[in-house]
Amino acid sequence: MKMELAGKVALVTGGAKPRAMGQLVALGLAREGADVVVADLYAAGFPALEEAFGQIGRRVLCLTVDVLDPGAVEAMVAQAVATMGRLDVVVNAAGGSWAISPEDIVEGRPPSAPVPAFGCSDTDWRRILGVNLDAPFYVCRAAIPHLMARRWGRIVNFSSLAGRRGGAPESAISSGPYAVAKAGLIGLTKQLALELAPYGITVNAVAPGIIESWRGERALASISPEARQRMTGGIPMGRVGAPEEVAEWVVALCGDELGYVTGAVIDINGGMYCP
Ligand SMILES: NC(=O)c1ccc[n+]([C@@H]2O[C@H](COP(=O)([O-])OP(=O)(O)OC[C@H]3O[C@@H](n4cnc5c(N)ncnc54)[C@H](O)[C@@H]3O)[C@@H](O)[C@H]2O)c1
């Protein structure tokens, strides 16, 4: 093992649910030697995470935060730096097109019907854009001064296949405003990449297809076997992706070896979209 991130501190949003991609990223970063701050609304997931970090032998600081709240995000970054002493890596994984309200997260409600962009209510628009686009902006805004101060940093944002090509209206598990937000997040990624390149900070995005994460498992379980078969049939590789297949890329983007890659969008979708 290279322990590329030994001595560094990472902040990962959306890492509390078992098999959430953010959780696998947090554990992967720890295996590379980083101490990690995990911010999530699902505090019930923290004890298991703390135990897993104990087994790896790295520190974890779990914070209950709604990333939609800019004041809470500022306080989260301040607490992360005060407790861990520094901040080097930021991964914005919190997001989704459904079950992103505090009640949904805590109660684990099943997927709601997909919302189209045309005719979307103000409430759905604000929450979906808020969690998937505003929140990564708030986190980056609060964290970047700490990365700039060390003239080294890594930021990885979770976009989506939906942000690359739009969400199919007949999709059972995506939504229109989600596709808009994830496309906007690619724009934020590229803009920050240009602004931060002189400081040795890379900013990249991953754009997963259909992934069997905590969320993915529930979404797939909520549709009929026929709909699932149709969905799998639309994937050139004939299967959905495992969350590890995304997390490995994110961890790699946080190391030194990919330090000349910035402003990139890594498509991880089994061939569903080949730009
Ligand atoms: N699963 C997929 O198929 C898929 C595909 C493309 C993109 N993505 C994106 O990848 C990222 C991770 O997705 P996942 O499938 O692992 O999701 P997940 O639901 O399994 O995990 C998301 C985590 O974010 C947390 N979270 C959600 N809203 C929050 C908020 N407002 N404040 C704090 N924490 C919050 C949840 O509690 C959860 O722990 C998301 O941004 C998602 O949009 C997922």
Explain this structure.
By secondary structure, the chain is of the alpha/beta class. The chain has helices spanning 21-31, 46-56, 70-84, 102-107, 122-150, 161-165, 176-196, 214-221, 225-233, 243-253; strands spanning 9-13, 35-40, 60-64, 89-92, 153-158, 201-208, 265-268. The protein has a seven-stranded parallel beta sheet, sandwiched between helices. α2 (46-56) links the parallel β2 and β3. α5 runs parallel beside α7. The protein is globular. The chain binds nicotinamide-adenine-dinucleotide. Residues 13-14, 16-17, 20-22, 40-42, 65-68, 93-96, 100, 105, 131, 158, 160-161, 208, 210-211, 213-216 line the site of nicotinamide-adenine-dinucleotide (NAD).
Layout of SSEs?
Elements: E1 9-13, H1 21-31, E2 35-40, H2 46-56, E3 60-64, H3 70-84, E4 89-92, H4 102-107, H5 122-150, E5 153-158, H6 161-165, H7 176-196, E6 201-208, H8 214-221, H9 225-233, H10 243-253, E7 265-268
Parallel strand pairs: 1-2, 1-4, 2-3, 4-5, 5-6, 6-7
Helix pairs in contact: 1-2, 1-10, 3-5, 5-7
Quaternary structure type: single chain
Please outline the major beta sheet: 7 strands, parallel
CATH topology (fold) name: Rossmann fold
The class by helix and strand makeup works out as alpha/beta
The level of helicity is 40-55%
Order of helices and strands: EHEHEHEHHEHHEHHHE
Task: Please mark out the parts with pLDDT under 50 across 5 or more consecutive residues, or reply none.
Answer: none
Q: Please count the helical segments.
A: 10
Taking all residues together, what is the mean pLDDT? 94
Radius of gyration: 17 Å
Number of domains: 1
| CATH homolog superfamily | NAD(P)-binding Rossmann-like Domain
Shape: globular
Which percent band covers the strand fraction? 5-15%
Distance between the termini: 33 Å
Main sheet: which strands, in order across? 3-2-1-4-5-6-7
Bound molecules: nicotinamide-adenine-dinucleotide
CATH class: Alpha Beta
CATH architecture verdict: 3-Layer(aba) Sandwich
